[in-house]
Amino acid sequence: MAGTDRGDLTRTAILALLGTVGPLSRSEIARELDLSPATVTQLTKELIGHGMLEELDLKPSRGGRPAQRLGVVGSAGRALGVKVTADHLVLVDVRLDGEVLGSWETPHDPAAPDALDRLAAAVESVVRELSAGPPLLGVGVGVPGSVEDQAVGTVRAPTLGWQAMPVGERLRRRLDLPVLVENDVNALAAAERLYGRGRTHRDFLVLTIGRGVGAAIVADGRVYRGARGGAGEFGHLPVDPQGPPCGCGARGCLEAFVGSAGLLAAAHARTTGRTPGTEPPATRDPLGAVAALGRAARGGDADIRAVFAEAGAILGRATAGLINVVDPEVVVVLGEGTAEWPLWRTGFEPALRAQLYPGRRDISVEVESWDDTSWAQGAAALVLATPFDAAGAAGEQGRLVRARLIGAAS
Ligand SMILES: [Zn+2]
Fold first, then answer.
1. Can you give the residue ranges of the HTH marR-type domain (predicted)?
2. Do 134 and 184 reside in the same domain of the chain?
3. How many domains does the chain have?
4. Given CA atoms 96, 200, 207, 147 in this order, what sign does their dihedral have?
5. How far apart are alpha carbons 30 and 271 in whole angstroms?
6. pTM higher than 0.70 for the full model?
7. Share of the chain above pLDDT 90, in %
8. Cα 291 to chain center, whole Å?
9. What is residue 340's predicted lDDT score, i.e. its pLDDT?
10. What are the pLDDT digits (tens) for 179-212?
11. Measured between alpha carbons, how far is 333 from 342 in angstroms, rounded to an integer?
């Protein structure tokens, strides 16, 4: 296979190194990758010629000549990220260096018989609108479910009503672009690996709170996917067999307590004196309803403050269990629910610290800023990470992304 010769692998390794640790000199690249200086000089010359690397500032050195550092060109490529939800799509156009060039939102019914055709049509209409600039490398799709192989892209997502939906295959055929499909929390972890914690940590957890509860495990610099792409279903950690019913069919899962529907049910029970889970209030906008609870709590409603603190404590205990098992360096909390994090935190912190294994009690839990396009940015990162993915986790579609990057530049 011409596209995967030694030179291609080495070029990818150089991009991977610079894309994940930032600019380095040629001699630093040679040392890190155990390559000869001549090889590094030759391959970086090609990458500069392709417009993928650029020479940056001179790094001062003790004695001798100062070394010229090389960095990845942020405008060498772009990707479209798509987040699929139960009622709409968010699309975002992102450059190789993570800069967001544009975003779009459109209603979408995943249960419609032609849902995938409509999804493809939404992507096509955005592709037609793209401004001049970096070449489009591919499309990343984030879904709230499990994806057996991100390059094949067959999705199982109960909340979308998808059993074995051939998302990747159908979109690729229709769009004639590389398409990578992945669980949405794993996609966020890919973005963290590329632009966030991955620059300084090789082992970290990403937790998401919002409608559901999710986790992604980054172990030794890679997102751990499990045997069938289902790793990280933290929301279905059993908490209480007598607990409220969960969307997965079981009872008392973590998500049934601390997902938005669980929070609303707990608030309803506390304010009306009913048993939790007996009559969950129906709402078409659970995240909006939780935001309203947040306003009530910040306004001084002690009952609602207690609901958030209790949810925080349940999440804190469960998170301690996950940390004890996985042993990450840091935990990053993301998702729509982080808007109310100060309310969660009062319950979360003591419950977490009390349950952590000795020696890990000082682990840092960091909450990052969040906006409506964050999920879609994660999906774009699936594509943007592949030029830096020396291990080839994205398979054939990743190879096609790299071919487009090099083809566009040469
Ligand atoms: Zn469940």
1. 10-54
2. yes
3. 3
4. positive
5. 64
6. yes
7. 65
8. 23
9. 96
10. 999 999 999 999 998 888 877 899 999 999 999 9
11. 12
Q: Do both 234 and 355 map to the same domain?
A: yes
Mean pLDDT of the chain: 89
> Which residue range forms the structural domain that includes residue 153?
77-191+373-409
Residue 190 CA to ligand 1 centre (angstroms)? 24
In terms of Cα–Cα distance, which of 94, 181, 171, 106 is closest to 136?
94
pLDDT exceeds 90 at position 103: yes
Separation of first and last alpha carbons in the chain:
20
Examine the domain organization and report whether 218 and 344 are in the same domain: yes
Q: Are residues 293 and 216 in the same domain?
A: yes
Q: Say if residue 288's pLDDT is above 80.
A: yes
What is the dihedral angle through the alpha carbons of 207, 210, 213, 217, rounded to the nearest 10 degrees? -20
| Domain containing residue 282: CATH number | 3.30.420.40
Query: What is the per-residue burial (b if ≥16 Cβ within 10 Å, else e) of 374-399?
Result: bbbbbbbbbbbbbbbbbeebbeebbb
Q: What is the pLDDT of residue 248?
A: 86
* Separation of CA 50 and ligand 1 centre (Å): 48
Residue 408 is predicted with a pLDDT of 65
Strand residue runs (E) in 274-353:
330-334
Q: What angle do CA 213, 113, 336 make, to 5 degrees?
A: 20
Q: Residue 4 has what pLDDT?
A: 47
| Cα 162 to middle of ligand 1, angstroms | 17
Q: Work out the number of other CB atoms within 10 angstroms of the CB of residue 283.
A: 14
